[in-house]
Write a structure and sequence with these properties.
globular; five-stranded mixed β-sheet; Collagenase (Catalytic Domain)
């Protein structure tokens, strides 16, 4: 894919030191999803690394769930014909499609990496890929084939990034 993906990453938490290479990995994960999905336009995505309190507040405000979660996705597109058919606003200065915002709870990601027996890098890549698919209109909430379809896409991208599911990884 020759189209540029601009990923703006902010870190507003103090609890977990962001490991070297994470910003590059997040950018690579965003790009890999767009390539896999055949997204043929320049794009912009915002990724915010935050803490338990901030993500809990966002989860309560936007999902009416007063609990800490690992990642939240705020898609800016509309998907009248399902995933991959998004209609997005454009940054008129750059011509890029505005996909939306990803908020990752870094302390939760660290806990989940330990729980699932894999690296923080793999967990952050997974959460980024998962959220990028949401920004493109995919949803696992209905369960069944929707869940299977999304999980397959996630694992394909993670394998391309060199982070395939290990034998110790289990679903929560």
């Amino acid at each position: 894919m020759s189209n540029k993906v601009r990923v703006t990453i902010t870190d507003d938490q103090q609890e977990v030191r962001v490991p070297t290479g994470i910003r590059l990995l997040v950018r690579r994960a965003c790009t890999a999803v767009l390539v896999q999905e055949g997204f043929a336009f320049p794009a912009e995505v915002s990724v915010r690394l935050t803490d338990n309190a901030a993500i809990r507040a966002l989860n309560a405000q936007y999902r009416q769930k007063d609990s800490v979660t690992d990642v939240l996705s705020f898609p800016l597109g509309e998907f009248p014909e399902g995933p991959g058919t998004g209609q997005f606003d454009m940054n008129h200065d750059t011509g890029a499609k505005l996909l939306g915002d990803i908020v990752i709870c870094l302390p939760r990601a660290r806990e989940q990496a330990q729980l699932f027996g894999h690296s923080l890098q793999r967990e952050l890549a997974y959460l980024t890929v998962h959220s990028m698919l949401h920004l493109l209109g995919y949803d696992h909430e209905p369960g069944g084939l929707y869940l299977v379809r999304m999980r397959e896409k996630e694992e394909q991208v993670l394998a391309q990034l060199g982070l395939p599911r290990g034998h110790s990884y289990t679903e929560a």
